[in-house]
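Sharing a chain and its predicted structure for anyone who wants a worked example. Both blocks are below, sequence first, tokens second.
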Amino acid sequence: MIRDHATLSRRYFLGIGVAGAAALKSLSLQAESSEGLPALQEAIGKLESWLTAMDDFRDVSRGKPIPHSLSDEKKAEVGMTRDTWKLEVLKDPDKPARVRNEFKKSDDTAFDFAALMELAKTKAVRFPKVMTCLNIGCPLGMGIWEGVPLREVLWLAQPTADLRRVFYYGYHNEEPSQMFRSSMPVGRILEDPFDLPPVILCYKLNGEWLSSERGGPVRIVVPEAYGFKSIKWLSHLYLSNIHGANDTYAEKNNDVDSPLKSFAATLDFPGVVKPGQPIPITGYAQAGIANVSKVQVFVHNKADTLPSGDKYFTKASWKDATILPPPAEWGGDLPGEKIPAGTLGYDATGQPKTWPMRLSKVHWATLLPGLPEGKYTLRCRTIDEKGHAQPMPRPFRKSGHAAIEQVSIDVEA
């Protein structure tokens, strides 16, 4: 994620008029001086684009070999191309739901890409989402994902009773030991609570066909979930009467039902500065299920003792950073450099209806006043829309990363 993008130069502010001017004024006031603004503008000019190009996503795919590394011929053979993709929709053989219409390869009724595209003519949806691994602090990438709500295919199977959970997996080299499975309660598939987008059978990212490295031709994308729920190279869907999760990820002591958390991290900061020199800082925040209302920073002189028993620095002198407004250019190699029409969360002109956008990311910046000579620790955190300061309300490691980041800044003459 830490990657320079020249497209977000000073135009990040100048291209957004009044909002940009207000942001610059806010940043200037934080430092009580405009001395460091050129350095801050330079740091903002290095910010990663808001959307991540498909080829720039961080890859944590599983498999030996990783399925997306297979030859084109092998991908076609195993159903990893749009022409050959097949989805089996089956009753769980151990705890079956009552289903009238299964989709099977064995009788040539498996659901194919042409059938998915037929549904897409009237049912396609697209929404922004940051893709994040449960146990990695840095998001894998930010994209606009497009697909057909999974419920549309589920209803084609005509379930009638005893359906409590749906589990699914993707291609795994025909080796049972490599299978990676996820699951959801059927209620989440059939209905979208709390104004969430639907769970989708995804086939496009940032307006382009999903590459095999990103899970194509078709993957699951669960808007509010960590990446292990959004299975790649989807091949099987089971309708089940089991009452609890049977996710592969649960085997490693992970909380498989925890939605995205909010947290902040730095992107650019000077490791060494001179005494009294304003300090430009930029970063990003993941806007989890409770979104982000503030980003704050706290600078601590390492020579000073911190209060005991204050694990999450609740007594520290936190200062508000500036959440940057929507960029003039979204990045991500969007066709025509425009947000696709009808994307959830955007108006008819392609501008976000709210900012930050929940389940996405946002950039922030601050210009700290100069400091006396010494060694310092800089920390950053989010405050969500419920007023919870990171890492609360869910500080536990196995339910998603939310640790307060700390970096060192040395002030030397």
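Comments welcome. The longest helix spans residues 17-31.
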